[in-house]
Design brief:
Elements (H helix, E strand, L loop, with lengths): L2 E4 L3 E4 L6 H8 L14 H19 L3 E6 L5 E12 L2 E10 L8 H15 L5 E7 L3 H9 L3 E10 L2 E11 H6 L18 E2 L6
Antiparallel strand pairs: 1-2, 1-9, 2-3, 3-4, 4-5, 6-8, 7-8
């Protein structure tokens, strides 16, 4: 499968069936999935894979992508764009989940920034969002570091409980006016100008 996005350290591509065990490692790790209040069952992983990955590719031409380290070819996590429905309205969301052993390396920021760029420059989106649980500080920090601001709070009912979520967003005009806003560059990786698109560039 061809590369969709490329940064200095990473490339993002569509999932392969051979990535399924790596996806299980993420979704069935209770520490990674703490904002969901549980590690996923085998059926929940299968539903995630079919709906947000394979099914989303088929319906929209994009979805959650596998994040691969360019030097080692190691699977690090997932990051991409999905359409989320909230009270009948559609939100184009950047989502990201990484294996615990790869936390604190700036990979989520690097991958999410490239997805934001893709959303505005290839999909011509007017706004891009991240919908993040209130206790998920790490994911909120990623959203902030790629230039998003918290716009409002919502309550989502999931896993038999009400969960406070924050909606982070950035508008297209702000992205093009100040493309570096919020980005804290990590040593050894890209500025926004170094992000390369390929694969789905016809979208």
């Amino acid at each position: 499968m061809g590369t969709i996005l490329e940064t200095d350290r990473l490339f993002l591509r569509e999932f392969l069936d051979s990535d399924y065990n790596d996806l299980c490692e993420i979704l069935q790790d209770k520490d990674v999935m703490y904002a969901y209040e549980h590690s996923f069952s085998d059926d929940e992983v299968k539903n995630w894979y079919n709906k947000l990955i394979v099914g989303h590719y088929e319906k929209h031409g994009f979805g959650l992508w596998a994040v691969i380290h360019k030097r080692t070819n190691e699977f690090l996590g997932q990051c991409g764009l999905t359409i989320q429905d909230l009270n009948g309205s559609e939100y184009l969301e950047i989502g990201y989940l990484f294996k615990k052993k790869h936390w604190h390396n700036g990979y989520a920021v690097e991958a999410a920034f490239s997805c934001k760029k893709y959303a505005f420059e290839k999909l011509n989106a007017e706004k891009v969002y991240s919908i993040i649980r209130g206790n998920n500080i790490a994911s909120q920090n990623v959203a902030k570091r790629i230039g998003m601001k918290k716009s409002r709070e919502i309550m989502k009912h999931y896993y038999n409980m009400d969960m406070l979520h924050y909606i982070f967003e950035i508008k297209k005009e702000k992205y093009f006016a100040k493309p570096n806003i919020g980005l804290i560059r990590q040593p050894g990786w890209l500025s926004h100008k170094s992000c390369i698109f390929s694969g789905l560039s016809n979208l």
